[in-house]
Specification:
This protein has 340 residues and is mainly alpha-helical. Helices cover 85% and strands 0% of the residues.
């Protein structure tokens, strides 16, 4: 028995790194598949309700496509509005931004004893022909891979909603081996992850609105852009709120002349992040999402390393899924307790 336990432990040590290596290597398959599972959860309650009303499945799928198309259209309009807002800025603003940011960088250079700009302007050091050419290829590759993954995700969503891929049956046949238990587990996963997605979406929405209103109230340029940025980056658990506050604080340094006004603006946008992300989000999430900070940071680093930005976004839903699965077995329940 001891030899068998030792053998199983050694096999586990070998299999776990291999498993994560395959996840990273085959990310072009796993990222759309996992993302489509979370997206499909949003539409499953509506699909079941339409099915009870006797609606054909084809009509329900068409309705899902229409709703998704409307959401994409509205998102595109907001992005275009934000782009027009930035393009409408006069050259005087960009000259002022360049001057202030150059001064800020130079002060850091003097403090650290380095010479990065070497007498050049800030924009001139970054906007060079060779730098633009070098960054063009990776940018095109990123856009191409993003488009491919988006189409793959849409394809998997249709398969999941059409019933071609049944997650509950997969759980029953592979892990749980009991029909009743697999149904209960799937319903809990659906309920908890649907709650997470809804709460995260509305918290991010109101955070973006709050940041945009603060920018407008203090006279900081591009309030629509900063509101959209805060909304999008807030989906990165813990990290997103810090990034938005830091970047917006640096940007506001360009426009807000007095130190007291700048400090009050930074306190205002920080208060918005604390109110929605630090107070309201945990309240609405409830006890089912009680995951300790250490686990969140570890999962962010792990999935961020494996899948990049999509991994950062999906790290917490994946952790919630694993926590629910671990709670179903007495031998692994202690790990679920540690996660909590």
């Amino acid at each position: 028995m001891n030899d068998r336990k030792t053998t199983n432990l050694l096999l586990l040590i070998l299999v776990v790194p291999l498993f994560f290596y395959l996840l990273k290597t085959l990310s072009f398959i796993f990222i759309p598949l996992i993302a489509s599972m979370f997206i499909a959860l949003l539409f499953l309650p509506m699909m079941r309700w339409l099915k009870k009303k006797g609606s054909p499945k084809v009509l329900s799928l068409i309705l899902v496509v229409v709703i998704s198309g409307i959401f994409i259209k509205l998102s595109g309009e907001l992005i275009q509005l934000s782009s027009k807002e930035i393009l409408s800025a006069d050259n005087a603003f960009f000259d002022k931004m360049q001057e202030k940011l150059t001064t800020l960088i130079l002060s850091f250079e003097q403090f650290l004893g380095i010479d990065f700009l070497q007498g050049e302007t800030l924009l001139g050091s970054f906007v060079k022909k060779e730098n633009i050419v070098k960054s063009l290829v990776p940018t095109l590759g990123f856009v191409s891979s993003t488009l491919t993954m988006s189409l793959s995700t849409a394809f998997f969503v249709i398969l999941l909603l059409a019933g071609s891929i049944d997650i509950q049956k997969i759980l029953n046949n592979t892990i749980l081996k009991q029909r009743v238990s697999s149904i209960k587990t799937f319903m809990k996963i659906e309920k908890d992850l649907l709650k997470f997605v809804k709460v995260k979406f509305f918290i991010s929405l109101f955070t973006g609105l709050g940041i945009g209103i603060m920018c407008w109230a203090f006279g900081v340029s591009f309030p629509i852009f900063w509101g959209l940025f805060a909304f999008a980056i807030n989906f990165l658990q813990m990290v997103g709120s810090v990034i938005s506050v830091v970047l917006l604080s640096i940007f506001s340094f360009v426009e807000l002349e007095t130190t007291s006004m700048l400090l009050f603006f930074i306190l205002s946008i920080s208060s918005v992040q604390v109110l929605f992300g630090g107070i309201l989000e945990p309240i609405f999430m409830g006890k089912s999402f009680s995951i300790n900070v250490v686990t969140i940071l570890i999962m962010l680093m792990l999935w961020g390393y494996i899948w990049g930005i999509p991994g950062l976004i999906m790290s917490i839903p994946i952790t919630v899924f694993l926590k629910i699965m671990l709670e179903r077995f007495p031998k692994t329940k202690v790990i679920a307790d540690l996660i909590s």
